[in-house]
Every structure is written in C-alpha cells, then in structure tokens.
UniProtKB/TrEMBL annotation:
Upper taxonomic lineage: Bacteria, Bacillati, Actinomycetota, Actinomycetes, Propionibacteriales
Taxonomic source organism: Kribbella albertanoniae
Highest taxon in the source lineage: Bacteria
Annotated protein name in UniProt: XRE family transcriptional regulator
InterPro entries, A to Z: Cro/C1-type_HTH (IPR001387)
Length: 298
C-alpha cells in the first residue's frame, strides 16, 4: 500500500526517473520484459536506454522515445500522459543548439556515449561525411561465430581531419562488447569500452590529415559477443550518407525469414530473399539520419 502511495505521489510531483523506477518496481517486470512488450507494440528501445531513463542518466526526448514512453504508460498500467507530463519541455543541449538541418547529434542516437566521447576527445560532429558504408555480417549460431567486417569511404568536410571514430552498441544481457580483431585498411588508434552501457568506440587514424573534399578508406573487423541467439543487426546514421550495403551470411542453421528494418520518420518492413547458401543483402542508395538494418527469426 505504501509503495502505491509513493508511486501516486511521484506521478504528481516527479521527477520523471523516480516515477518510472517506482512504476517498474511496482509491476515486478524486468527491463527485458519491458523491452519485449514495447517491441510487440512496434516500438524498439534498448534495455540500456530504459536503464538510463530509469536512473536519470539520460531522458527520452526524440519523437520515437516519447512514443516509447506513451507505450510504457500502457504496459505499466499508468494514467495516460502521466510520465510524459513529468518530462516537461524539450531541453536544448550543447552542440545540438547549432546542429545542421537534416542531421542528428551523436548523443541523440547513442545517449549513453558521452563518457566515451569525452575520453577520446571526440571531434565535432560533421567533420566527415561518408560516400559509402558497407557491413558484412557472418553468423554461425551453432559454432558460436559472429563476425562483422566494415568498410567506410569517408570525405573530409573540414580542414586537417586526421581521424575517424566508430561506435557500436550491443544489446547483450552479459554486458559483453565487440572485440576489434583486424584493421586491414587504416591505422588503429585508441579503443574504449563501457561494459555497463555495452558500448564500444574505436578511433582510426588517417595516414595524413585530410583537407576538405579529400577521401580516406577505413576497413576493420569485429568479433561480436555470443551469449544469446542473435536476431537483428542495426546501423545508426547521424547524418545523410551515400551508399549503404548490408550483406548477411548465415552459416550452419538458416533463419526462417529475414526482414529489413528502416526507421527514419516511420518504420517500414520489407522481406529479404534468403538464398539456399544462407545469404541475403539490402542496399540503400541514399541514407537519411535514423536506423537501418535487418531482423530475422530462427
């Protein structure tokens, strides 16, 4: 009874994170339970984001995040708009105040990345644009093999650009992160991991600083963690990019189906043809800021 009274008070007075934490505790649901129920309602939110919202380390502000909060109210049995009201007006922050139209700040897609970015003294957004980005993902669930090979063709949008940062975030219950195992094209710089947020940031150095309009190629390979069946692969884009390709190769057991996932202003689903050899691909000639990837079912 006391817990219900405390929740009622927090929904009236806030703060948002305390009300959300109390509401989750009242239901006894885990963050994974919430993530799955949100996913069933067509809203994708990582457990890391839910955890950060709950502890006040970040706040839901994007349209998709606010939609997730509305669905959370339903799942948690709360009055409509009770959590949304506690968020108040959207807060302008740092670099986002002067953002370029049609782009997203890095912290918008990686809300928990700020400590890693500060550790690497990350350059400002927009110093590089990408002519093309290619992902090759090899998955063999039976053998416990997951490898990702990435090829980036970058163009300098400022003078004397000397490095490129890449970000990866894993939705892994054992707080595992990728391992950088090869850099066939480019020079490896610093690598930082945050096990709590399951984030991985790597720095690649160019052979010489790029002048505006000059290009560089970076190619690297990751060993992805294996602790639960893998059923999706997404890539986040903070700004428009050129050609994006995703190649999937399933060795051993093949999934029942594979579908494209594309979230910008809306979510679109498209079935991808899976060959007898267990390969499929998707091609996006012009990428907008948002999330592109694939889901599959075993």
């Amino acid at each position: 009874m006391r817990a219900n009274q405390e929740l009622t008070r927090l929904l009236r007075t806030g703060p948002f994170e305390a009300a959300l934490d109390s509401a989750i505790d009242a239901t006894g649901m885990s963050l994974e339970d919430l993530r799955r129920r949100l996913d069933a309602r067509g809203v994708t939110v990582s457990r890391t984001a839910l955890s950060y919202w709950r502890r006040g380390r970040s706040r839901p502000e994007r349209g998709e995040s606010l939609q997730a909060v509305a669905r959370l109210e339903e799942i948690l049995g709360l009055p409509a708009s009770s959590l949304l009201t506690l968020l108040g007006a959207r807060r302008p922050r740092g670099r986002w105040i002067d953002h370029q139209p049609g782009t997203l700040a890095r912290w918008k897609l990686w809300p928990s990345s700020e400590p890693l970015l500060k550790a690497l003294n990350a350059p400002p957004d927009g110093q590089l644009s990408f002519v093309s980005i290619s992902d090759l993902l090899v998955v063999n669930e039976e053998a416990g093999i997951r490898r990702q090979r990435v090829r980036l063709v970058a163009e300098a949008r400022a003078e004397r650009v000397d490095r490129c940062l890449v970000y990866h975030e894993m939705d892994d219950p054992q707080n595992l992160v990728p391992e950088l195992i090869a850099v066939p094209f480019g020079r490896r710089g610093r690598v930082r991991c945050d096990l709590e947020s399951r984030q991985f940031v790597a720095e690649f150095l160019f052979d010489q600083p790029l002048q505006r309009g000059e290009h560089a190629i970076v190619e690297y390979e990751l060993k992805l963690p294996v602790s639960q069946p893998m059923d999706h692969f997404y890539r986040h884009f903070t700004r428009p990019a050129g050609l994006y390709t995703l190649q999937l190769r399933f060795a051993g057991r093949h999934p029942a189906w594979v579908r494209r996932f594309d979230r910008n202003t809306a979510e679109r689903v498209q079935d991808l043809w899976l060959s007898e050899a267990g390969t499929t691909s998707l091609v996006v000639p012009e990428v907008r800021p948002g999330t592109v990837g694939a889901r599959w079912v075993w």
